[in-house]
Design a protein that fits this description.
30 helices; P-loop_NTPase; globular; Put_endonuclease_Z1-dom; alpha/beta; endonuclease activity; seven-stranded mixed sheet
Length: 913
């Protein structure tokens, strides 16, 4: 696309920002009038393309999220606004618009950052204060943009010292500095301020909308903080007319240098610095900032240093930004000590950020993109790695080849790059991620093997792609066409155009390693007439924390951790994929897909819980207690105590929760026992005088007595690995409620609508099918990892809910998520649980199958030939929601079941702690 197109686009969007939304004809007339100012203007095709792009962006909405405040919150911002000149924010707002953010998203950012700023300390208040809060976003959803906006507003309001603690890696700190340079500072901190080249200073980003004022920066995109540089810049700090900003790495040496410098200045009689209102932004706050106690000494050291830093100032604010707040919520709000003071629990506020509706996130990929009956939209499974590149490998492992699935992923990336070029996105960056090992030597081997694959393809394309049909005799080009037919033919139907463009599109593709030993990926500012970068990035932990790969399109992911924070942060494929979302593909093992789906549901529930807490006027401490008692917290609890290697007890609440046997025992006696129990339960349902009705999921019985359900649970032979369905805690929760809340039940016997009937449970049922993780069979249990690590189908918790209540719950969900009545939605099951009159027991008869492509695996022979019984339970909101029951977790056994937690080699390196 030519430069006139981009210029007209910027002008149109600037002009529309403060205007009411225009009709289709009005928009096109406005675009046409702007285009005539720049001869030769745009042709009809370009004019229509621009109109459609703007219409699409105008339809993108973003909610304000939820706010939970601590006690004693006193708003101050509204009264102070008349005296605040929004210099830095106005520049940043214009930059966001120029960078293409939708108008509604910018306005939401304005409101949200006001909401956060108003909960920070009042910089005009001349008395000691200390505020602690947390902002919960989504992975790759724009948290950096949000806190950059907050920094701009805080500077306008009077904060004079702003510290951003970026991630533990140099490349992430550098990337964060670049974004602060662009959004807040307004000039390139890597260049000498004031030096003139061709009559122009090194003004960038927001500086183009006003460069007469600037913050003082004690760090640059090249240099982290050091005392000698800070001392040499003392003259610039002056009387703090403009704010001082630092972007530092989360590193114990850097933090100690900063602490020493501040202490030295205050000891020498310069109290001015520590008397300034200070804002500390802790990016990726769940990483290394938490005082894990059991962990390595230096990790705890960082926690203490952050607390020491806050204690130095008479007026300080700590704002933790994270997309995975589980660890932060587990901070003890009462933890205090003489040396470091209070811990970092967000006692004053917790704010949840809603992602814009064009966000390509976990819900979209692992819930909406995984229909129960159809093929996944974006996900592909890795099944061929074990003999070539096993998930668990040693430091001296030798990689001689790469799996075919990785070669296919590389071919997909090269094709996607080509299609994007043909769509007019040649100037856009395009990246592929390979995350298959946390060991740096193995990453280098993977890089070398993939480089060989790419060079082979390039050579074939260079020599033969111009030969038309004859080019298909080249096996590499023939293979590329096969991948196009399987993956992209519906997205771009003309292979001849792809083949003709291949060489020019992929020639500059490079394969690089990204870890502590490597350099920083360079992504120049995208502009018409230039060519975007094409990277295939191989890495581990450095690619799992905050670092953004521009234009990430294809991912090959081979990691086996099931920890919430680690898995979600590894999801670098989340973000915004406007214009090429249809080309994105993610390869990963079946089990990883299941874990991601499970965690996506748990994360959504956490955000919903935050909204419920806001309505109830709850405090952060109350929210913390609610999250800690969530059933999914068993994983986090065990992770937090993993180093102790002992049995731990976790209190869990089951009010408004869904639990199910995602893992079942395949011991013959267990299978036989559980089938007998299910047969007896079903017989009691049919023999009793209960209301029976057919529904889309099978046969539903209404009004079943508690004793019938309790008898089933009392005899159930639970797989030890299915922690949540241990029957002792479940029955302990139910028994005190047997005379009121759970006296009557709905029981659903699930049966498909098509298939072969089976009467082993005493009634004709068409069993559902779920494929299993074959590796679990060696532990004598089956994990219904399937697509979502769930037995239940979406929407099943609606069974038995009053239709009027269900409709109202759906309307409320639409309203809360700004959805129109005509938009097709997949409603989360939790909305029905909240309006249930009775608990629901779901009985599944499941035919287990091996994953596709693994039918011949010897482990598949252990899969029972006949269906097995599983169950789920939807429990409504209790009148006694604070009641909890205790689950026992043996962390040693936990490690055996789920794998030992692996610290990344980058994290363990002394330079990065």
């Amino acid at each position: 696309m030519n430069s006139i197109f981009d210029t007209v686009k910027d002008m149109v969007e600037m002009g529309l920002f403060s205007q009411p939304r225009k009709s289709e004809s009005e928009l096109r007339e406005f675009i046409k009038s702007v285009a005539t100012v720049f001869p030769p203007g745009l042709n009809d095709e370009e004019l229509e393309k621009l109109a459609k792009e703007i219409e699409f962006k105008q339809g993108i909405k973003a909610g304000l999220g939820a706010v939970v405040d601590g006690e004693g919150f006193e708003p101050w911002l509204d009264d102070a606004k008349a005296s605040i000149t929004p210099y830095y924010w106005s520049r940043y707002e214009k930059l966001l618009l120029q960078n293409g953010l939708p108008k509604d998203v910018i306005r939401t950012t304005d409101k949200v950052t006001d909401t956060i700023l108003s909960r920070l300390g009042n910089p005009y208040l001349e008395k000691q204060w200390d505020r602690r809060g947390m902002v919960v976003g989504h992975v790759q959803s724009g948290k950096t943009a949000n806190y950059t906006g907050l920094i701009c507003k805080a500077a306008d309001a009077g904060y004079r010292l702003i510290i951003i603690i970026a991630g533990i890696h140099t490349n992430l700190r550098n990337q964060t500095q670049e974004r602060i340079d662009e959004g807040f500072i307004g000039f390139d901190s890597g260049k000498e301020w004031g030096r003139v080249v061709g009559g122009r200073k090194y003004v960038i980003g927001a500086g183009n909308f006003g460069a007469e004022r600037r913050p003082v920066t004690l760090t640059t995109r090249i240099h982290d903080f050091n005392k000698s540089r800070a001392d040499s810049d003392r003259s610039q700090i002056g009387d703090y007319v403009e704010p001082v900003v630092l972007v530092i790495k989360k590193n114990h040496r850097t933090l100690q240098n900063l602490l020493d410098w501040l202490k030295d200045n205050s000891a020498s009689g310069d109290q001015q610095m520590i008397e300034q209102p200070m804002l500390l932004i802790d990016d990726e706050a769940d990483n290394a900032s938490i005082n894990t106690k059991y962990g390595k000494k230096l990790i705890t050291t960082i926690n203490g240093q952050i607390r020491d830093l806050l204690k130095l100032f008479h007026r300080s604010c700590y704002v933790a930004y994270t997309a995975t707040p589980f660890a932060n919520i587990f901070i003890d709000p009462d933890q205090d000590d003489d040396m470091h003071g209070e811990d970092l629990f967000p006692a004053d506020f917790i704010i949840g950020l809603d992602a814009p509706d064009n966000y390509f996130g976990a819900t979209k990929v692992f819930i909406d993109g995984l229909p129960d009956d159809d093929e996944p939209q974006w996900l592909r499974t890795i099944q061929d790695n074990e003999d070539i590149l096993p998930i668990n490998h040693k430091q001296d492992f030798i990689l001689n080849d790469v799996p075919n699935s990785l070669i296919k992923a590389v071919r997909s990336f090269l094709l996607a790059r080509t299609i994007r070029n043909l769509r007019g996105e040649e100037h856009k960056h395009c990246s592929m991620l390979i995350n298959a090992s946390w060991r740096n030597p193995i990453q280098k081997q993977i890089r070398n093997r993939v480089h060989d694959v790419v060079e082979t393809i390039k050579n074939s394309v260079r020599l033969n792609a111009s030969l038309g049909e004859a080019a298909l005799s080249d096996p590499e080009i023939f293979s590329l066409k096969q991948v196009w037919e399987e993956e992209f033919a519906d997205n771009f139907a003309d292979w001849s155009k792809i083949q003709a463009q291949l060489h020019d599109a992929i020639a500059a593709t490079s394969v690089v390693v990204v870890n502590k030993d490597s350099g920083f990926l360079e992504y120049p500012k995208e502009k018409s007439g230039s060519k975007g970068k094409s990277y295939i990035a191989v890495g581990g932990y450095a690619l799992s924390r905050g670092l953004t790969l521009e234009g990430l399109t294809i991912t090959w992911f081979l990691r086996n951790t099931m920890m919430y924070d680690t898995l979600m942060q590894m999801g670098r494929w989340f973000g915004y994929r406007t214009g090429y979302e249809d080309l994105c593909r993610i390869w990963m093992p079946d089990e990883a897909i299941g874990w991601y789906s499970f965690i996506a549901n748990a994360t959504n529930e956490l955000h919903d819980e935050l909204k419920d807490m806001e309505k109830a006027k709850a405090t952060p401490e109350q929210f913390g207690l609610a999250v800690r008692s969530h059933p999914a917290s068993l994983l986090v609890t065990a992770r937090n105590k993993m180093g102790s290697g002992r049995k731990i007890i976790s209190s869990v609440g089951l009010s408004n929760e869904f639990i199910e046997t995602s893992k079942v025992s395949i011991a013959p006696k267990s299978i036989e026992n559980n089938i007998r129990l299910a047969r007896e339960l079903i017989a009691k349902c049919f023999d009793g005088e209960f209301h029976k009705e057919s529904c889309k999921w099978g046969q539903l019985f209404v009004g079943i007595d508690f004793d019938v359900v309790d008898y089933f649970l009392s005899g159930w032979d639970n797989a030890e690995q299915s922690i949540l369905t241990k029957t002792e805690p479940v029955r302990a929760y139910l028994r005190p409620r047997k005379d009121d809340e759970v006296s009557k039940w709905d029981v659903l016997i699930v049966s498909l609508n098509k298939g072969t009937f089976d009467d082993s449970l005493g009634v004709e049922i068409i069993p559902i099918q779920r494929y299993v993780c074959l590796d679990d069979l060696k532990h004598n249990f089956m994990s219904f990892s399937g697509k979502k690590m769930r037995v239940a189908s979406r929407g099943v918790e609606k069974a038995g809910v009053d239709p009027i209540k269900a409709e109202k719950a759906e309307e409320e969900y639409r309203r809360n998520n700004q959805k129109t009545p005509t938009e097709k939605l997949n409603y989360p099951d939790g909305i029905y649980r909240k309006v249930r009159d009775r608990p629901l027991l779901i009985i599944y008869y499941v035919q287990a199958t091996p994953p596709k492509g693994q039918e011949s695996d010897p482990k598949a022979e252990r899969i029972p030939s006949s269906p097995v019984v599983a169950w789920g339970m939807s429990l409504p909101v209790s009148n006694k929601p604070s009641d909890k029951v205790e689950y026992l977790v043996n962390t040693i056994r936990y490690q055996e079941m789920f794998g030992e937690y692996q610290e990344d080699e980058d994290l363990l390196a002394d330079d990065h702690i």
